[in-house]
Amino acid sequence: MSHLTTAVQGKARIPDGPRYLYRPRLMRRLDTMVGLGARTITITAAFGYGKTTLAAQWAVERQAAGSPVAWVTLDPADNHSARFWRLIDAALASAVGQAAEFGAASPDGLVERTELIDELIDHHYGPGRDVALIIDNCECLTSKSLLLELDYFIKRIPHNALTVLSGRCTPVLDSLCKRDLEGALGRILQEDLVMRRKEIIRLFKPVRFDVDALVEASEGWPAALVLTQRLAPETSGNSSRPSDDSLLDALCGPLYRSCSTGVRRALKIMALIEPFTATDLGAITGGKTGALLLARTHQETGLLVPVPSSGTPNTFRLHRLFSRYLNNGPYDERIDYDAVHARAARRRSTQGRHVEALRHAGKAHDVTLLKETLSVSGLHLLWRNELHELLEVVREIDATDVAEVSLLESLIALFEGNIELAHCWLEDRFLEATSMDLTPPFMALQSCLEAQLLMARGRAAEAVEVLQGLHGSSLHPDTALFASNVLASALISSSRISEAETAAIDNFDRATGRNNPGGFVDSHIVRAALYSTREEFLQAMDHAQSAIRFGDMHGFRYSPRLRPAHLIASWCSYHRLDTPAALHHNAFVFKSKSVAPVVAHSASKLALILAFPTSQQQASVAEELLDKLRFDLAYGPQPQDMAVCSLQATEMLLALHRTDELTLLKNDLRKYQGLSGELYTISAWELIASGQLSRARQLLTTVTSGSARHCQSSIGLTTAWVLLARVELLEGRLFKARAAFAQALSIASQHSTLRAFAFAGTDVRAALGRDRHHFRRFGHELDIIRAFGDGYGVSFGPALTQREVELLMLLPTLATVEELASDLQISTNTVKTHVKAIYRKLGVRARRDAIATAINFGLLHPDAVPSQLLQKNHQHRS
């Protein structure tokens, strides 16, 4: 081969494979392929994946084992028939013997060249010569005539010969398809060449490092890992990730600069719009050559990665490191980046990739385009409740002069339950914006936001006025649905129930079938709030639970948007005497203030009610609930939970014997509500506790007969009937007690509220259980009442002071007034005053009657006689 040039000799020689990247796993795989009868092997991968290194190391080992190996390294200049076959001849000659002299003077005709190819095969592939021919950089072969000749060559070589084709892409040859059908084709793909965890650990050994970080950053690109290994200090505790500028430039710079101008431009655009399809690439580059650009890019770089999880077939992205280099690399002045971002924003919006659409619109420096994209993609994300993604991309947009951006931030804060922040954005950022020409959907949303903030401050009537100027027919359906839900909430809060009912029904029908989970949840919550206002707690519970279930299915589980549904469900459970469910739902509205749509129930008051039975500071809990009730009466609109909270506070204060605080509550009810049914019921309740049954019956009859001047709630009316039944039981009129129970059960069944039977006390519930056979049509309600616990222990009794309770405990000792005064270290007159108060509150005139009544109320145990005092009195008398 003395006639061959030095350049040809160098290209026909096995290159020195770097030993630091040794891949025994792949070496074994190549040997296995040959052992299973593979006659052709293709190694296909991008730049830097170790194709040449692997093939060279395998060739060296094969040569060392005594098998001849011919090697050819191609470059673009070898895409010529005469030059290519001269290299093949030289490579085969170096492996098996003398060259066949396939020189530059080869004939021009294909037939004549095939005859020379036959001669080359006969010369080098004799009997017993199982030579392996390895052709590297096959992507350089693009000439159709040369590919036909190579196809002919592969078909004609003997069966014992092996051909290895290595490159960024594999030539499409009929011979390869035939070998594949015969099972004689082996493939090493790019995913096979990706470095595994064990290989990375072995490469960096003994340096300790974060393997997962390297794998994620490099995506197993061997060249990136090898360069990182070289740059990482051997004494370092952690290897650096392949992401710094010097490493990226050393790795990706030569590859990028080696690409043609058109491919470089396409690569820069790909890095901006990934993931992408060929159609995306063509539309965004402004031409119709997306498929061609994709093919050329894949051929010149090989760093296109398929994205099978995108939902769209044939979707690609660039390798992560290559994409990072392109986004941080040199700026190509021939690319109009604003135009690229504008086209990408429009395309991504039509594709439903709204986060990407907003990002591109924010970088296009086009206010009109940004407003259009916010009106479509921004609102789509808002209605889908994808608030974190929307807030993240909105904060990336550098457009403080666009009012829609600030308005979106305010709406996001509102949906996340942060009323103060929503008001801050609206008042501060929104007013600072210079572009106040809002698009139509955002004009409607501004009114909705203002109405929400007004409702949060208890100004529901003003909120209705703000919203009534909107015309639903001119709005997008989702925007109109949101506006009508807010309007229905404002109507409920302003007690315009008939109008709210019409709006709620329309909203529910409008939300059904739309791909708007937030609007559907809000529609259910509005219906639940409406039924709750009308004290139809079973229907309210159904809609609240439907909202919760639907919200859970669409990722709303811990969203503040579900807080009203949980709040209504908690109140409904409370009315149904289901304390565990009430506690469960109330846990989701902890620290809740006001969320869309606003409902008038108070989470904090319900939390106090539920916490009272197990609290170690019951007096403080009762006082806090009383303070909230008095504040609502004095300063806020009439809350829908006022009736039940007033009755519940009465039970707490009676159980704690806090007569002064109960008097304050009655005074406030009289001042702000007049002579309401609840005021009559609470006063009668206190009279029963003090034993004044006749006066209590008069007040309760006023309520149950409908003679009370103001309308009474169902819970208040049920409580009045149950208390009336208690009075009849205490006076021995069993028939009238059953009639009162029947009325109470009828109202409770109709409105699904059984809380009044918890207020009545354990002895009343026991009597109801004994007479169960008289109320068979209320079997379900009676089962719930029977399963209910004892509540607060002393849930019914006279409102005694602490000193009166101490004296009551001493009455069974039959000690004299002087002995009691001596024991308690107070004057005899004081003892007499307290004893008279006890008799009055218990409705008795003698000590023995007081003891019996106290035992009946549960204030005294039948055997509760203080032994120490008895002993002291005995010693004193003796």
Description:
With 878 residues, the chain is mostly helical. It is 63% helix and 4% strand. The strands form two sheets. A five-stranded parallel beta sheet has the order 2-3-4-1-5. A two-stranded antiparallel ribbon has the order 6-7. α6 (144-156) links the parallel β3 (132-136) and β4 (162-167). The relative contact order is 0.04.
In short:
Helix content is 63%, strand content 4%. The chain is mainly alpha-helical and 878 residues long. A 5-stranded parallel beta sheet has the order 2-3-4-1-5.
Low-confidence stretches: 591-600, 791-796, 866-878
Estimate the strand proportion. under 5%
Secondary structure tally: strands: 7
Q: If you compute it from the alpha carbons, what radius of gyration comes out, rounded to the nearest whole angstrom?
A: 44 Å
Spatial shape: elongated
Ends apart, CA distance between termini: 141 Å
Strand order of the largest sheet: 2-3-4-1-5
Which structural category fits the helices and strands?
mainly alpha
Q: Provide a count of the helices.
A: 46
Mean pLDDT: 81
The major sheet is characterized as: 5 strands, parallel
Q: What share of the residues lie within helices? A: 55-70%
